[in-house]
Amino acid sequence: QVQLVESGGGLVQPGGSLRLSCAASGRIFRINDMGWYRQAPGKERELVALITSGGSTNYADSVKGRFTISRDNAKNTVGLQMNSLKPEDTAVYYCYANLKRTGYVDYSDRWGQGTQVTVSS
């Protein structure tokens, strides 16, 4: 069974920083893209940042210059460094990975359980 487990969420003040981490575990053959999505109350889930297996990145306009995504291919982990946080960053953040399981021919999208990030005074 493949699992994505997030950690690092919490409550921070505006202007503060937080680092999210996600670890993929199980019999994984290869991971293509990894990324972070978020969903605020009453809003649709949106892409925050994406990173390919080759290290190419893509960010939502709202977080450019403030967030940095990274990954460790050897450990099957992805991180999100969040700086200069704003109240509008408040959301549940979900880890995402497109991967191929060992012994399977197909790739599939996998999601973490989500971690709450709250930016408030």
Q: What does this protein look like?
A:
- This protein has 121 residues and is mainly beta.
- It is 0% helix and 58% strand.
- It contains no helices and eleven strands.
- It has strands spanning 3-7, 10-12, 18-25, 28-39, 46-51, 57-59, 67-72, 77-82, 91-101, 107-111, 115-119.
- The strands form two sheets. Strands 2, 4, 5, 6, 9, 10 and 11 form a seven-stranded mixed sheet that branches. The chain has a four-stranded antiparallel sheet with strand order 1-3-8-7, with no helix packed on it.
- A hairpin with a 5-residue loop joins strand 5 and strand 6.
- It is elongated, with a radius of gyration of 14 Å.
Give the CA-CA distance, first to last residue: 40 Å
What is the tally of helical segments?
0
Radius of gyration: 14 Å
Please give the number of β-strands. 11
**Helix proportion of residues, in percent?**
under 10%
Provide mean pLDDT, rounded.
97
